[in-house]
Amino acid sequence: MTVTVYTKDNCVQCEATKRHLDKINVAYDTVNITNDIAALDKLISLGYRSAPVVVADNDSWAGYIPEKLDKLAI
Fold first, then answer.
1. Which are the contacts of 2, defined by CB distance < 8 A and separation ≥ 6?
2. Is 3 helix (H, G, I), strand (E, B) or coil?
3. The pLDDT value given to residue 1
4. DSSP, residue by residue, 23-58
5. What confidence tens digit (pLDDT) does each residue in 13-46 have?
6. Residue 53, CA atoms < 13 Å, CB-side half-sphere
7. 59 three-class SS
8. How many CA atoms lie within 13 A of 1 on its CB side?
9. How far apart are the C-alpha atoms of 7 and 74, rounded to whole Å?
10. Full-prediction pTM beyond 0.85?
């Protein structure tokens, strides 16, 4: 499974999401939308307006949602 976390600078929920994934040993890639305008435009086109955005295979969501993150470890 491929997991990507779209983050931005000074984002408490972004850091919490990455810490949670580290804790449950789920590998992920990080894209900082503060510096990557193309990635930001992609997220906006998908309807996202806040960070973090987690994209995992056929699922995606915005925000720190521990229950959804835990399902990635199964």
1. 29, 56, 57
2. strand
3. 85
4. HTT---EEEETTT-HHHHHHHHHTT--SS-EEEETT
5. 999 999 999 999 999 999 999 999 999 999 999 9
6. 20
7. strand
8. 18
9. 23
10. yes
Structure tokens at 69: 């993150």
10: left (phi over 0), alpha (psi -120 to 50) or beta: left
Q: What are phi and psi of 44, to 5 degrees?
A: -60, -40
- Taking only Cα atoms into account, the Rg of the chain, rounded to an integer number of angstroms, comes to 11
CA–CA separation, 35 and 12 (whole Å): 17
Question: What CA–CA distance (Å, rounded) separates 63 from 74?
Answer: 20
Q: Tell me the two tokens of residue 19.
A: 């810490």
Quote the CA–CA distance of 60 and 20 in Å, as a whole number: 16
pLDDT at 74 > cutoff 90:
no
